[in-house]
Amino acid sequence: MNALQLASEEEIQNPLLPALPEIIIGLIAFAIVFGFLAKKLLPNIEKVLEERREAIEGGIEKADAAQTEAQSVLEQYKAQLAEARHEAARLRQEAQEQGAVIIQEMRAEGQRQREEIIAAGHAQIEADRKAAASALRQDVGTLATTLAGKLVGESLEDHARQSGTVDRFLDELEAKAEAVR
Amino acid sequence: MSADPTTVLAFETDCHIFDGCGFPAPGLHSFVFEPMFTVGGIEINKPMLLAVLSTVVVVGFFWAAFSKPKLVPGKLQMVAEAGYDFIRTGVVYETLGKREGKKYVPLMVSLFFFIWIMNLWAIIPFAQFPVVSVIGFPVALAAIVYILWVSLTFKRHGFVGGWKNISGYDPSIGPALPFVMLIEIMSNLLIRPFTHAVRLFANMFAGHVLLLIFTIASWYLLNGIGIAYAGVSFVMTILMTAFELFIQALQAYVFVLLACNYIQGALAKEH
C-alpha cells in the first residue's frame, strides 16, 4: 500500500503538469455543454426573451396610443368648450350692444315725442293766448269806447272805429309790456 | 499513516490522536485517483466522472429550463434566465458591448456554468472533489479561450496588426520599445494562458486542501481531551464549506470575466 502511494506521489510530483486524458475528457465534456447550449437552448431562450420584450413593448405602445388618443380627445373637447364659451361671450356682448342701441333709440324717440308734445303744447298756448288777446282787445276797445261815449255823452263808436285809436293805444300798451319784460 | 488513494475516503479512519498515530495530513496524494473503469482506451477516474456528470447537470438543468421556454416563465425558467442574464448582461455586454459581445454569450454562459458545477462538487456529499483542482481541466478550458482570442486578434488586425496588438506596439515609448514589446509578448502569449488556467486550478486546489485539513482533523482529534479541539475543527469545516461555496462561484466568474477581457483586448483597435 505504501509502495503504491509513493509511486503515485512520484507520478504526480508536479501538480501543474496536465495529463492528456483529463484535457481530452474536459474538452469533450465542455464541447457537449457548449453544443447543447449554443445550438439549441440559448437560442431558444433568446427568442423567448425577444418575444417577451416585444410583448411588453407592444403593450406599452398600445397604452401609449390610447393615452395619445385620450389626450387628443381631451384637447378637442377643451377646444370645443373654449369655443362655446367664446361664442356665449360673443352673444352676450352682442345682446348688450343691441340692448344699448335699443335703449338709446327708445330714449331718443321718447325725447323726440316729449319735445313734440311740448312744442304742440306751446303752439296751443300761443294760439290760445293770441285768440284770447285778440278777443280781449276787441272787448276792451268796445268797453272803453262805450264807457268814454257815456262820459262824453255821445257815441264815439264810429269815430273810434274809423280812427283806430283803440288799436293804436293797445299796441302801445303791448309795446310797453314787451319793453318791461 | 498511509492514505491509500484508492479508498473512497481521503484518509484512514482508525487513526486518532493520543493513539501513537500521526496526523494523516492531506497532500498531493489527495488529488490522485485510481481509474474506476475504462472507456475507449481512456481510464476514467473520479474527477473525470465528475466532469462528465457536470456536463449532465448543466445540460440537464438548462434543458429542463429552456427546452420549451414560455413567455411567462415558470420558477425553473426564471432561475435559469437570471443566471443566463447575469453572464450575458453583467459580464459579456459589460466588457464587450452588446454588438460585439452577442456572438460570445453562449460560450461564456457555457464556460461559467460548466466551471461552477465542476467546482461545486467540492462540497457535494460523496463527490467532495473540485474537478478543476486537477490541472488538465482548467488547461483545456483556458486553451479554448486562448486559441479563440489569439485567432481573433489576427483575424481582426491582419498579421502585422495582430502582432502590433499583442506586443503593444507604440513608437512613442522611444528606445525602450523593443523591451516593452518583448515583455508584452511574453506576458500576453505565454504567461496569460498559464495564469488563466492556474488561477482557477490553484484556488480550487487550495480550497480542497483546506477542507481536507479541517475535515480530517475533526476526525483525527476525536479522542479524550481532543474532542474539544475536534469541535473547533468541525466548526471550521462548516465555515470553510460556506466560504468555498462563495469561492467556487467567484472563480468561475473571474475565469469568464478574464476570458471576456482577453477577447475585448483582441478586438480593440490599438493598445
Automatic annotation (TrEMBL), chain A:
The keyword Coiled coil applies. InterPro entries: ATP_synth_B-like_membr_sf, ATP_synth_b/b'su_bac/chlpt, ATP_synth_F0_bsu_bac, ATP_synthase_B_chain. The chain crosses the membrane at residues 20-38. Component of the F(0) channel, it forms part of the peripheral stalk, linking F(1) to F(0). F(1)F(0) ATP synthase produces ATP from ADP in the presence of a proton or sodium gradient. F-type ATPases consist of two structural domains, F(1) containing the extramembraneous catalytic core and F(0) containing the membrane proton channel, linked together by a central stalk and a peripheral stalk. During catalysis, ATP synthesis in the catalytic domain of F(1) is coupled via a rotary mechanism of the central stalk subunits to proton translocation. Belongs to the ATPase B chain family. F-type ATPases have 2 components, F(1) - the catalytic core - and F(0) - the membrane proton channel. F(1) has five subunits: alpha(3), beta(3), gamma(1), delta(1), epsilon(1). F(0) has three main subunits: a(1), b(2) and c(10-14). The alpha and beta chains form an alternating ring which encloses part of the gamma chain. F(1) is attached to F(0) by a central stalk formed by the gamma and epsilon chains, while a peripheral stalk is formed by the delta and b chains. This is ATP synthase subunit b. It comes from Streptomyces sp. gb1(2016). The lineage of its organism: Bacteria, Bacillati, Actinomycetota, Actinomycetes, Kitasatosporales. The gene is atpF.
TrEMBL record, chain B:
Keywords: ATP synthesis, Cell membrane, CF(0), Hydrogen ion transport, Ion transport, Membrane, Transmembrane, Transmembrane helix, Transport. The lineage of its organism: Bacteria, Bacillati, Actinomycetota, Actinomycetes, Kitasatosporales. The keyword Transferase does not apply. InterPro entries: ATP_synth_F0_asu, ATP_synth_F0_asu_AS, ATP_synth_F0_asu_bact/mt, F0_ATP_A_sf. This is ATP synthase subunit a. It holds the Pfam family ATP-synt_A. It comes from the Bacteria. The chain crosses the membrane at residues 48-66, 104-124, 131-152, 172-191, 200-221, 227-247.
